[in-house]
Amino acid sequence: KLITVAAIIFIIGTLLSYCISVKIYRPIYNAATVIRKKYPTSFEKESPKIKNEMLFIEHSVNKIIQTNEKLAAIIEQHKSTLFEKLIMDIICGDATTQDIEVSRPLLDDKFTYSYYMVILFGIDNYKQFKGSISTESEKTFRQKLVMIIQNKLSSEYKTLCIDMHNGTFMAIINIDGLDNILSDVTRVCTEIKVSDLIVDTNITVSIGIGGVHEGIQEIKKSYEEAVTTLNYKFIKGTDSIISIDDIMNDIYKSTNNCCI
User: Fold this and answer.
1) Per-residue pLDDT tens for 96-117?
2) Contacts of 248 (CB under 8 A, 6+ apart)
3) Comparing C-alpha atoms, which of 249, 91, 136, 121 is closest to residue 100?
4) Short-list 204, 190, 209, CA closest to 238
5) Which residue of 6, 38, 96, 152 is most buried, as measured by CB atoms within 10 A?
6) How far apart are CA 4 and CA 62, in angstroms?
7) pLDDT tens across 119-177, in order?
8) Quick check: 75 and 82 in contact, CB under 8 A?
9) Which letter does DSSP use for residue 177 in this model?
10) What's the CA gap between 212 and 156, in Å, rounded?
């Protein structure tokens, strides 16, 4: 009888141990299966002899971590390019709300305030200027001008300056309020216009200033206003600094004069 009882207890214990082991092993097996389905060749080729799921998962997780670290390094290396691409997509209306949310860490690293203004700097008679110097000299000049614009505005605001490659340079400034912004920006733009690089090159630069708008997606609106104001130099004259407020004031005056 004792032998029978012992045998029954042994069998029951073995069954319980098996059931518990299966229950414990199931998540490990499922995790390994998910990895094999997600990466059906890459990890298996690198570890064909790994049959133990725990070792396979350990190997796979290490590879995933290494891959993520490499991707993070690549993103960090090309962060400026990715940021400029995102801004250009916003301006062109190609960036969705989801695109912006996904890129939020990239944006928060550069811009921290809610308000934005776009300023366009246009080289007057650019085609003539471009034809008067070598391609390399013109490229060097553009690089230097980007640095001047960036450095001057960055001393006052969070700034991104992008060479539009058509004789126009776009500066986006990120600000925390509206107080005296136009007069302050106009002052800095005047300093840029009389910088040694521009004066010594014997060229003039016209500047169009868009309005201040709240929200990263409203950069597009400020950019469109800056384009309008820069084109207004054909009325105001080259070597000008023109804001969207100037145009609105001119329209208001013209409307009042017509009504008199």
Assistant:
1) 888 888 887 777 777 888 899 9
2) none
3) 91
4) 204
5) 152
6) 50
7) 999 999 999 999 999 999 999 999 999 999 999 999 999 999 999 989 999 999 999 87
8) yes
9) -
10) 16
What does DSSP assign to residue 46?
Answer: H
User: Strand 115-123 vs strand 158-163: parallel, antiparallel, or unpaired?
Assistant: unpaired
Query: Are 176 and 114 contacting, i.e. CB atoms less than 8 angstroms apart?
Result: yes
pTM above 0.85, yes or no: no
The winner for highest mean pLDDT among 51-55, 82-86, 100-104, 233-237 is 233-237
Q: 54: closest CA among 41, 35, 79, 73?
A: 35
- For every residue of 110-173, DSSP letters joined together read H--SSEEEEEEEEETTHHHHHHHS-HHHHHHHHHHHHHHHHHHHHTTSEEEEEE-SSSEEEEEE
**For residue 211, which phi and psi values (nearest 5 degrees)?**
-80, 170
At 161, which amino acid appears?
C
Residue 152 in tokens: 């001057």
239 or 26, higher pLDDT: 239
